[in-house]
């Protein structure tokens, strides 16, 4: 049995106890930010910003009914940016003490002396800073003990192993962490985020006449009570193995392709990556100069909503301190907005969209169908459940991935197929979406169901 435990009194704290401990950490973060910004001004900096975070939690892994790994994790980080006439100095350290932070500030100021002025560098104007902080229900400390986590992991695994086709378990894992982060700048802005995150997963190995199969399932959320029950996690992992037992081949050529929700998330991620400011100002995006153009079927509208309660991408402000807002990215197929930080917005001669640090919750709005209805309408094609490889070119939009999934004919799944390739061009693929599924997966900040594409090239 591997047993990795941090030494000391903190090694088996619940998130309730960790939350109490992090109250002091939050105060330390704010005092460090105040001291650094005050000292930066004394040293002649035009502006300064400080961000820090502290994440603490526990993780247990069970294999074949026995404890395999028990981990206590604690991670802290602090970063400082200073600006002298648009010359930027940056430092990053792992020591949340004022002495270390002030030493880091001195280093950042020295770095700035040797950098070239960047006309786009600097803080976003003070008027854009967040001033309203809604309770987004992101922080749910729960007195989940190590014994509770072990019991949940063991139940998930035992529920999965109660199946004759399951050869062995690769492990069931239960995870609980709480994070505190702080961002402050010389506009007198200071914001805190406090979040919890829980997950339970199980990975299995199945035995078939043609060899072994690997699959699994997981559940996650901000609140432990929102997780799927352990026995249902195990049962779903086993069902996924069971569904792959009948294997076969598929035809090569152009056929309809349906991406299941887990794979569809990745598909949307490629689009949103092409709409990010960095890709746009570097002119390395297949979405260049598409603002106002039709990029999706008119039935589809995409909304970014940073205010979803318990959302995995929810926040009142971005990494620049800019207030977030609910907004439309695509309106009835037409591109209405990008994802811009303060820096990328200046490079493009535009306004920040509050996306420094990433994209917030994404809602794909469209008439939706059941997966069975989608397959019936398409007739014969491929339901993709896994993709592999790096064959996506965000500059040209060319898409070629290894894939596995289920071949369906006359609207009915026939068998499982693997070691095939699917190919197309992202711009064409998005224009060729013919249906979205009602099987929306909430385990991500991109809330999407299955996505059906009229035609892609399949090579078996």
Automatic annotation (TrEMBL):
Q: Where is the Metalloprotease TldD/E central domain?
A: 140-245
Q: Which UniProt keywords apply?
A: Hydrolase, Metalloprotease, Protease
Q: Which domain of life is it from?
A: Bacteria
Which SUPFAM superfamilies does the record associate with it? Answer: Putative modulator of DNA gyrase, PmbA/TldD
Q: Which residues form the Metalloprotease TldD/E N-terminal domain?
A: 53-112
For molecular function, the Gene Ontology terms on record are: metallopeptidase activity
Hydrolase as a keyword of this entry, yes or no, is: yes
Which Pfam families has this protein been placed in? PmbA_TldD_1st (PF01523), PmbA_TldD_2nd (PF19290), PmbA_TldD_3rd (PF19289)
Q: Which residues form the Metalloprotease TldD/E C-terminal domain?
A: 252-459
InterPro entries in alphabetical order: Metalloprtase-TldD/E_C, Metalloprtase-TldD/E_cen_dom, Metalloprtase-TldD/E_N, PmbA, TldD/PmbA_N, TldD/PmbA_sf
Family listed: Belongs to the peptidase U62 family.
Tell me the protein's name: Metalloprotease PmbA
Upper lineage: Bacteria, Pseudomonadati, Pseudomonadota, Gammaproteobacteria, Kangiellales
């Amino acid at each position: 049995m591997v047993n990795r435990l941090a030494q000391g009194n903190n090694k088996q704290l619940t998130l309730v106890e960790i939350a109490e401990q992090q109250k002091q950490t939050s105060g330390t973060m704010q005092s460090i930010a105040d001291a650094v910004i005050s000292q930066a001004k004394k040293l002649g900096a035009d502006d300064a910003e400080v961000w820090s975070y502290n994440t603490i939690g526990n993780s247990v892994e069970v294999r074949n009914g026995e404890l395999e790994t028990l981990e206590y994790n604690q991670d802290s980080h602090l970063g400082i940016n200073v600006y002298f006439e648009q010359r930027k100095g940056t430092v990053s350290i792992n020591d949340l003490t004022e002495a270390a932070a002030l030493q880091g500030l001195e280093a950042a100021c020295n770095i700035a002396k040797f950098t070239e002025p960047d006309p786009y560098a600097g803080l976003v104007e003070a008027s854009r800073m967040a001033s309203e902080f809604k309770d987004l229900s992101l922080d749910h400390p729960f007195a989940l003990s190590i014994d509770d986590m072990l019991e949940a992991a063991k139940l998930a695994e035992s529920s999965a192993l109660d199946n004759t086709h399951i050869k062995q378990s690769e492990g069931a894992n239960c995870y609980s962490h709480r994070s505190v982060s702080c961002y402050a700048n010389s506009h007198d802005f200071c914001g805190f985020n406090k979040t919890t995150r829980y997950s339970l997963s199980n990975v299995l190995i199945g035995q078939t006449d043609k060899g072994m199969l690997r699959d699994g399932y997981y559940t996650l959320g901000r609140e432990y009570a929102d997780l799927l029950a352990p026995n249902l996690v195990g049962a779903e992992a086993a069902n996924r193995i069971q569904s792959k037992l009948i294997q076969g081949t598929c035809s090569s050529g152009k056929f309809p392709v349906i991406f299941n929700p887990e794979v569809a998330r990745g598909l949307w991620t490629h689009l949103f990556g092409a709409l990010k400011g960095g890709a746009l100002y570097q002119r390395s995006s297949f979405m260049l100069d598409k603002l106002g153009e039709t990029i999706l079927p008119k039935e589809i509208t995409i909304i970014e909503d940073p205010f979803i309660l318990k959302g995995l991408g929810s926040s009142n402000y971005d990494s620049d301190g800019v207030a977030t807002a609910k907004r439309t990215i695509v309106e009835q197929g037409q591109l209405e907005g990008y994802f811009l930080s303060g820096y990328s917005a200046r490079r493009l001669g535009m306004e920040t969209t509050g996306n420094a640090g990433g994209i917030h919750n994404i809602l794909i709005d469209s008439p939706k169908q059941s997966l069975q209805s989608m397959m019936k309408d398409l007739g014969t094609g491929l339901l993709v459940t896994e993709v592999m490889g790096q064959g996506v070119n965000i500059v040209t939009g060319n898409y070629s991935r290894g894939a596995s999934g289920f071949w369906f004919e006359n609207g009915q799944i026939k068998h499982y197929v693997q070691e095939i390739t699917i190919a197309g061009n992202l711009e064409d693929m998005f224009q060729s979406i013919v249906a979205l599924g009602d099987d929306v997966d909430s385990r991500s900040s991109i809330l999407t169901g299955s996505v059906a594409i009229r035609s892609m090239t399949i090579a078996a």
